[in-house]
Amino acid sequence: MFLLLVSQVFAHMALKVPCPRYNANGVKCPQIPDGESWDWTQVAPIGSADEVFQPLCKYTKPFKTPSARWKAGETVTVGFQGAAAHSGGHGEFSISYDNGKTFMVLQQELRYMFFGTPTKLTNTPRKLKYSIKLPENLPGSDNAVFAWTWVNASGNREFYMNCVDVQIIGKAGKITGKEITVVNYGPYTQMLPEFYGDYDTGIDIYSNARNITVTGPGNESAFVIMLNPDGAQSEDGKIDEQGNRDSDNDDTDDEGRDGEDNN
Ligand SMILES: [Cu+2]
Fold this sequence. Notes:
By secondary structure, the chain is mainly beta. It is built from two helices and eleven strands. The strands form three sheets. Strands 2, 3, 5, 6, 8 and 9 form a six-stranded mixed beta sheet that branches. It has a three-stranded antiparallel beta sheet with strand order 1-4-7, with no helix packed on it.
């Protein structure tokens, strides 16, 4: 009983690379906005089916500079921390051009987020690294927000979200895609029950999400910066290895700040 309680409070999942807003375990994080604090509980959900704990993105103020510089059309890699993958569930990677008010889905990871393939009831993640192909026509912006969201397959009905401030190198323009799906986030959103092995649970909500169009201002001047193509991508090699993980191996935040281990 005690162990169950501990795992529910401390052992969830979070994006780690590139650094989401205020993640104390994040890799190469930018400067935090004045008056804000680093977050040691980044892995916690932002809400449950009953209650909203934190706003979308967890934090609404962006970092002083972007955590990553991505180019339209390229494939980017993101990495996660955490040791409670709740048997998978539905994940999405999305992008916002209005500081988190509207999110368009870039890629869905339905059914088996953190596993990649069918899994039994387990908290031990098998996949902590994801590649996302950015559309060629993804609009450019110096202030885009990349989001990861997740609804867990087993355990408390929770909704997870981390946001990364990113610079997207691209042209001015618009793009149409699915709107982000938000469930299990307070009593006014739809409730997805525990999957109990039925990984099609709620799948229609994700598939039938309406299309939205988002617009970015472009940043032609930023192409000059690409003369230095390293920058925010250079930490790729530090992302946790994917593949089978021992159940006792939860050492996923070794490059983070010194302090308590809260994955
Ligand atoms: Cu959890």
